Fold this protein.
Amino acid sequence: MLKRILLSILDFLLFSNVFIAICAVAQGLVTYHLLQVNPDPYILAFLFFATIGLYNFSMLLSKPVNPEKSPYLRVRWIFGHHRLIISITLISILCLIPLGLWYLSIESKVLMIFTGLLAVGYNVPFLTLNQQKIGLRNIPGIKLFLIALVWSVSCVLLPIVELERSYQINVSSAETLLLVAKRFLFVAAITVPFDIRDLFQDKLYALKTIPVMLGEKKAYIFCQFLLIGYLGLLLVFRQATYADVTATTLTLALTGWLIFKSNIQKNEYYYFFFLDGTMLLQYLMLLLFGWISLLF
């Protein structure tokens, strides 16, 4: 009985996209932590509700003909709780309106509108190719880079822009570029395994993702190179404390191991909890090693 209740709670957190929204908040907190400034609660709230809204909206747009027969538990759960998902999405949008209007600077509004259009354009077919409507997802290889870009802009650039415009805290262009590049590599690395899981489906729909173009084995190697690139930037352009470097290195090592262990046979909890959860883990590791450094 207890196991069933806990599993129901986990299903809700993962498949309603509340958990990934918590991960977005954690990634925003990582940025504030590395910049050694106090986090802006309004920016964190914006990240939370924007993530829920965009992820749920994209799922609702991609509803299959018979969702109850889908091989994916996530799809069956979402459309089995269709009204709940719509309600959560509407609440998220309603919360975003005052946050966006009253608490974001003009520059941040423009940045988020651009990011939102990219995210929506991924699923909405607005381009015409050979008399056929396509979305950004149909452009070869773009999925990985689009997702990583949206996350990097939202969780790194948005906090920095708001710090500079609303709090007059200056962050150098070099430091901004380095933070964006590292976050881009990290998000890209944990995104590829999801494409590997969907490899056969993407081939069916003629979606040119990285695994479709490179193959499964080379895609796994590609992930490890992305993480090594992150580690290289971390060590060569070291701006963080020893505790932060140690925490980030261990997070990258665990992330690489989780990616290496992922495969098509893994269930959806592995992907949506463990792999996505590395974004939350990164912040928790920074907190842990920061606390340890204070003790010693």
Notes: The chain has a mean pLDDT of 89. The CA atoms of residues 202 and 214 lie 13 Å apart. The longest strand covers residues 127-129. The two ends are 44 Å apart (CA to CA).
